[in-house]
Design a protein that fits this description.
688 residues, alpha+beta, eight-stranded mixed beta sheet, five-stranded parallel beta sheet, 14 helices, 35 strands, 24% helix, elongated
Length: 688
Amino acid sequence: MFSFLNTGILIAAAAALIPLIIHLFSRRQVKIIDFSSLKHLKALQRRQVKRLRIRQLLLLILRMLIIFTVVLAFARPTTSGGSIGTHASVSAVILFDNSASVNRYVKDGLLFDLAKNRALELLNNFGEGDELAILSLAKSSESDDGHFSSPAIAREKLTAIEHGYTPNSFTKTFENAVELLQKAQSLNKEIYIVSDAQRNSLPDKSFELEKDFKLYIVELPKEEIENVGIVNVDFGGRLLIPGKPFELTATIKNYGKNKQDEIIASLFVNGNRVSQSNVTIDGEKEATVRFTHTLSSGGYHSGIVELSDDKFPSDNRFYFSFQIPEIFNVLIIDGDESSDLIKLALVPSETGGQYWSVKQTAPENLTGVNFRDYDVVILAGAPVMPPALNDRLKAFVKSGRSLLITYGAETDINNFNSNWTEISGVTIDEPLNQEFSGAGFYSIAYVDNNHPAFSVFDFGKNQLPQVRFFTLPKVTATSQSRVLMRFSGDRSALVENKYFDGRVLTFCAPVSPVYTDLTAHAFFVPFMARISEYLASRLSGYDLDFHTGDNILRSLSLKGSLEQAIELQAPDSEILYIPPVEGTGAVSYSVPSADWPGIYRAFFERREIDRFAVNIDPNECDLAASSSDQIAKAIGASEYHILETQKPLQAAIAELRFGKELLQLFLWLAAVLILLELLLSRSAPVEE
């Protein structure tokens, strides 16, 4: 049985009728003329005419067959079996896994090298008439994004691919492979998956593969998981201060089933090893390691938490960076008498050598104040301000800064709800009762000890500070906000809300001594200091959630604008020039894709203006593998072929391929028919 790869051209087979049409329209009309008896000549004429008609009929058939054969040849006829014809062409896509998880060692060597050798062995099964596309599962400049190439070029591309640190994007890459094969014209259409079959990388949707697609899963060596990696580093949300120790906690996970002991965890800061500890972790469990260190100077700093080597070195390092401000600035907007008390709590003495600068001003004096000169604004008593100032303060928070709002006895609840509910997450339902006896009081009933603002206090059960509040407003916290402290009677005390890139804390109680003994309690000064530290902790810049492959947007705490490109130095020493973007109250820049783990440093006019760390995605650290059957099921393939690790690929693939292409056979047949037509037409006598 025949099939055709280029069926659209078969319509041209109708051109085979052209010689017949020409013959029918060119037949001469015979004119009969009476003549004398030519009995014997007529008999001779009939024999000659009969031979002439047979020759003409043969020429007509040959010419029609020539056209028909040429059309069939260009339609690329194929047969599913037999020994006649040439090997049918192949269009193949090789999905090659170069993600972070493949960069690990197994018994026979580096898994990435084994995978590449296996893929190169695949290329030996393709001839010059075949077409291939190499698609890497992780980002690579050598990957074919949308076109086929010859086997020789595909070999060059595959050889040039290096292992990456970005996650495996299986779904998107497989979609590209299917689109490529749908456009291909070859009889054999094949998809090869060369991957470590990491369970986390399975496609998140199934595909409807066409019937003529063949799916091959090339297996790689699989071993029992023995991997320990760092999944997180936490500074506790504290403001880092020169000369004061800070604590860093690293979370380490054992992905294997066996207990791992005598693991060495080291802390490096600015290139120097400053601490070291031994860790023991049970199978499939996590453990934490705490380091303490002190830096004497401010500015940008970076470091690494490093584990002793194992078979997967990529997750043995966790990079971090932070900034220690020399001083940070606090602006207190004076709305009631609590502003004096808050300032006194933050700056007990003008000569005390504090690491923050506090300025106090009345709302009517804010016209000439630039909020971008401050890191934290405290809105004491939530005073009524002009709409323009309210909008400026909202833009200040939106740009990534912090705001503390305290309730006061003179707070206008209508003004508060219309201007500050959106960004604070708090609605004031009723004001406090001005008439109270003082016999009864509210106390602190709950504190979120897991929050960075309170984790340093280490409040135990029944050890909360005994502070009395004689009257309170009735407030409601929105579902998007987080209540960090509650009073008795289930009254919200301290509420946190995120507003774009900034954060807002609202203290829902009066601070004035008329209504509470908070300011006279030993808890007040450390409470205000800790809240201010927490709100300013963004200055330390320890963004630890950036992973390789992410598109990263960085906001800069700069005064003024940038008129030139930012120079970004990547961990591989590549220099990128990125134009800054000025928004409302902030300057930012975007990193399209951070492909390397490590420390990224941004410079402007040779001055460092930003530093951040990028680590590999934690999902790449879980090396648990899926079976070939699970991969095929996730893809949605009902038919697939497994190319096992120890078996030669060439013989296995040859058995599964089918078909012979008859293009050359039909072209030779057309040539023979043309030759016969020439010979027959030359041997025909000249008609008289």
